[in-house]
Structures are given as C-alpha cells and as structure tokens.
Write a structure and sequence with these properties.
Pfam family, one: GFO_IDH_MocA
GO molecular function: nucleotide binding; oxidoreductase activity
Helix content: 25-40%
Strand order of the largest sheet: 14-13-12-11-7-10-9-8-17
InterPro entries: Gfo/Idh/MocA-like_OxRdtase_N, Gfo/Idh/MocA_domain, GFO_IDH_MocA-like_dom, NAD(P)-bd_dom_sf
Order of helices and strands: EHEHEHEHEHEHEHHEEEEEEHHEHHEEE
Structural class: alpha/beta
Number of helices: 12
CATH architecture of the largest domain: 2-Layer Sandwich
Oligomer: single chain
Shape: globular
Strand content: 15-25%
Number of domains: 2
Family: Belongs to the Gfo/Idh/MocA family.
Keywords: Oxidoreductase
Low-confidence stretches: 362-376
C-alpha cells in the first residue's frame, strides 16, 4: 500500500472530529469518507476534511477509496461495527474500549483472524511519544524494581447534561469504561496481567458508574507491585500517572492521557530523590523564605525530576493512526504495541471489576471486594 492511507470514519461526534483533525497533522493518512446515522453531521465533518459523506456505513465499506476504517461510535456498537467492517475486508482501528466485555472482544478477534484482516484497539495513549520513551526506561530497568503505580483520571460528566455516550450504561458509558479503562490498560501494558483485583464504586440509580477505585496486585515483575486506579465522573481528579521503583520515580504530567511530558526523579542513597546540601538552604530552614528557597532548590538540583518526552500538535490521536499505517505497510495483522490478546485481557479485568462493584455493592456506595484473576 503506497501513499497516504485513506480513512473512512464511522461516527461524527467529538472523538471522530478530533481524529480527523489530528490526521491532518501527520503525513501517513487522510480522511476519505465519513458515515454516521446523522447524515447532516457526517456531511459537516466530511466538508471540514475535504472528504465525502456516505449515506450509510455499508456504502462506505463498499467504497474503493477507503483503505482503513476508524470506528468512533458508542462502545455498545463497537462489536457490531468492527465485525461488519472486517467482513468486508477493511482494516479496523476501533476507539477504546474495544468492546463492552471480554466475550465481545474475543468474537472480534476471531472475526479478524478468520478474515486475516488487521484490527487494533485505539487506546491512543499507548502510542504517544512520551509513553514510548517511558516504556524504554522501564525495559532498561532505570527505575529498578517497580513497587507502586497510581493512575487518576476524573472529569465532571453529569448524567442530566453530558453526552449520553459518556454516561449511559446502555451505550457503554460510566466512569469505568470511559475513564477507568485507561488505567486498566496502562497497568496491563506496564506491569502485566494483575493476579488479584480489589474494587469499590459509587453507582447512580440509573446504573451508571460515577466513581470507581481499583487496586491491582501484579506478580509479573521480579517483585510484586501494586497499582491503584481511580476514575470519576463526579469530580476532576489529579489526572496524573506515577510509577515508583527502587531506583526512582516517573511522573507523567496531567493529563497523563495526552502524556506531553514526564519527569524522572532518581533516588539518592537515603532512598529519597536526590538533593544536594545547600548552606543557604540550611540557613533559611524554618524561616518564612524556606518554602520559596526549597522550591528553587528542587528545580535547581533536579529534585522535581529530569523532564523527558516531546510536545506535539493536536490531541495525540494521529500516533495510533500512524501505527496502523506502519503495520499495514509491514504486512502485520495486529500491532505489537496494542495486541489483540491484550485488548481481550484488559476487558477480562474490567469484567472482574464490574462483577465486584455490581454483585457486592449497594446503589449509594459499594463494599471493597476481592477476586482472583488466575486460578489459585
């Protein structure tokens, strides 16, 4: 396949618009067609991209000028739409979450392998330059033995006023599948499949997960590691990612899902981030100027960490599209960054979390539960 990849976009909402705009910042792809149940919205997005609007998804799949399809419909329709595209032989990039549950995900994987057609979940944060660099640091053991990871992601989405796609459980909405899925996927990516899961949540009367707190125990590394994940539709959280090891700590600046920049802080001999002694600092300790002097010292000595990563234009969705183009050019049927097996495993963890917060909880606040993820 030569030249720019010609994309067909199914959906004309917020994320589809972001994806289309981000494609224009790269050189590997362009929007060729847009389809949506709202034809007027499809026409508007197509005009903005100098593309064509198809009257139906089926019409777009029949088009000769579509090399790959981006699925940007509500999560409840991902299973249907991905399999429909694969049956027509179209490579697919599906917006996260890959499906509503692991069973649906397995059926998608079976369809992709049966059709021998490329398919990938659009967990776009994995493909960002800063995250690639972070993975490299972990592989080189720059943090030493990982012991803790924490992920926070929360934005206010009221059920009454927000987009139903984000909050309606019938459409795959709620804080778990909308936001918590980022932390679950990153935990699988960086620490492996969790052995044990604990979870608690607050669920609205409509069944929408408003707040969720998850703890994973991982045993893939040399020593066990804990991962804490919090997601919220009720409030804004720190929206940060922190990974701590025996040699240092990496913090990804908020919002971590865009991962524009991260900082690595090595630990000194006393097990704290290194800070050179300062005679002036010692003299000011305890005075009114101490907080200011301490902040200046941290920045001057690298106590706040050595920054890495690189800025980029746009939201960051073009990097997943570039990965699709790379894989197709190489003749690969799935991405090593987001393999199909891992999309299934992530949703297996989500299924276990859902079982905990639905079976052991109450509508106004759920008890902490535990479920093993492998045979014990």
């Amino acid at each position: 396949m030569s030249g720019r990849l010609r994309w067909g976009i199914l959906g004309a909402g917020w994320i589809a618009t972001k994806f289309a705009r981000d494609l224009s910042y790269g050189v590997t792809g362009r929007v060729s067609r847009v389809a949506s149940r709202d034809f007027v919205a499809a026409q508007a997005l197509a005009r903005a991209c100098a593309a064509q609007a198809s009257e139906s998804f089926e019409a777009m799949l029949r088009a000769d000028d579509v090399d790959a399809v981006y699925i940007a419909t509500p999560a409840a329709f991902h299973h249907l739409h991905v399999i429909q595209a694969l049956s027509r032989g179209k490579p697919v990039l599906c917006e996260k979450p890959f499906a509503l549950n692991a069973e649906e995900a397995r059926e998608i994987v079976e369809a992709a392998r049966r059709a021998r057609c490329f398919c990938m979940e659009g967990m776009w944060t994995r493909f960002l330059p800063t995250m690639n660099e972070l993975r490299g640091k972990l592989k080189r053991n720059e943090l030493g033995d990982i012991s803790q990871m924490s992920v926070d992601l929360g934005f206010v989405h009221n059920e009454e006023s927000s987009n139903a796609t984000l909050t309606d459980p019938a459409l795959g909405g709620g804080a778990l599948l909308d936001l918590g899925i980022y932390g679950v996927s990153l935990a699988h990516d960086l620490l492996g499949m969790p052995r044990e899961i604990q979870a608690e949540a607050v669920i609205s009367p409509t069944g929408s997960v408003r707040d969720v707190s998850i703890t994973f125990l991982h045993e893939k590394m040399k020593r066990p590691a804990l991962c804490s994940i919090r997601a919220s539709h009720s409030t804004e959280l720190r929206n940060a990612l922190d990974i701590s090891g025996s040699r240092g700590r990496i913090s990804v600046d908020a919002p971590f899902i865009r991962a524009i920049q991260a900082r690595m802080s090595p630990l000194g001999p006393r097990g704290r981030t290194a800070e050179r002694p300062s005679a002036l600092g010692d003299a000011l300790r305890g005075s009114r100027l101490w907080p200011v002097a301490r902040g200046l010292a941290r920045r001057a000595t690298g106590r706040e960490g050595v920054a890495f990563g690189r800025p980029f234009v746009g939201y960051g969705l073009r990097f997943e599209a570039e990965e699709v183009a790379r894989c197709l050019a190489a003749g690969q049927l799935e991405s090593p960054v987001m393999p199909l097996s891992e999309s299934v495993e992530v949703l297996e963890s989500v299924d276990r979390i859902s079982a905990l917060i639905s079976d052991r909880g109450m509508q106004d606040g759920l008890e902490l539960g535990r479920v093993p993820t492998v045979a014990e």
